[in-house]
Sequence to fold (230 residues):
Amino acid sequence: DIQMTQSPSSLSASEGDRVTITCRASQSISSHLNWYQQKPGKAPKVLIFAASSLQGGVPSRFSGSGSGTDFTLTISSLQPEDFATYYCQQSYNTPYTFGQGTKLEIK
Amino acid sequence: QITLKESGPTLVKPTQTLTLTCTFSGFSLSTSGVGVGWIRQPPGKALEWLALVYWDDDKRYSPSLKSRLTITKDTSKNQVVLTMTNMDPVDTATYYCAHRRQNSNYVNYFDYWGQGTLVTVSS
Fold:
């Protein structure tokens, strides 16, 4: 299985901050990397697919970059509704493994 | 509009078999490229990918759970069924089904999810 490691596991930030979450794959996955946002009690929602493609309807303050083994999700200016848990997922090989999650909390 | 909804028991006993049904609308599982997957999430923990069935009936499973999982599709009913045998309390989780999309560069992602169903394993 391809292991996905996110950092940090948790993050405190303030509204308006720029935030970056990283995800590292245990082997090269090209650009087969997706980012999801999950709020408490809700299903995950895809934000970014193929490492850098913004899903329709997702605000442009979200962006993704990277290829190979190292990827980042950046939120350019945090909004109140962005406080949630974020997961990366590789879809290069099955099983399509997820990272352990990054909980973004209000400072 | 694509929607998915999971259904099944909320409580199962240890050693029993869990059967979950994903009923969907807005797409057909006979259309080339389409897939439906199952993902679970124990309370307070991360997401875990379980299984995926493709339009051509190709099936993929998590290696760690493969011996216990079976995924099937019923295209006429717009349903995907996941069975998991020999349930254990550690299998307590919210189980989600999701629509798998493939982009032009063959990257797969889950773009629509069901609301999830919490399954508790306890005697």
In short: Chain B has a mean pLDDT of 96. The longest strand of chain B covers residues 93-102. Chain B has no helices and eleven strands.
